[in-house]
Design goal:
Number of strands: 2
Low-confidence stretches: none
Distance between the termini: 41 Å
Largest sheet: 2 strands, antiparallel
Order of helices and strands: EEHHHH
Strand content: 15-25%
Structural class: alpha+beta
Strand order of the largest sheet: 1-2
Helix content: 40-55%
Radius of gyration: 13 Å
Length: about 90
């Protein structure tokens, strides 16, 4: 049995409910964020979940997951303003 390394991204900062910032850099971190108290359940949220599953089964690239997660974060309005300016 082989344990795969988590796929790393440049970190995506997410504003938490308590106004702190978490930087997510792996697929498991993104999956946890979506599964636990994500502030929106709109179409971009569902697309991000589908992309995570798709990556797991080999249908989506990690880049597609990254883009889908950012779109979900924009939809949920949980990206810090400083990230949006970049």
């Amino acid at each position: 049995m082989t344990i795969s390394e988590p796929k790393l991204f440049s970190g995506i900062p997410i504003k938490n409910k308590d106004s702190t910032i978490s930087v997510l850099a792996t697929l498991p971190q993104m999956a946890d964020a979506l599964a636990n108290d994500w502030p929106s359940d709109g179409p971009m949220f569902l697309a991000a979940l589908a992309a995570l599953v798709g990556e797991r089964v080999g249908c989506c690239s990690t880049r597609e997951v990254h883009r889908a997660f950012i779109a979900a974060a924009i939809e949920a309005e949980c990206l810090p303003d400083s990230y949006m300016k970049n």
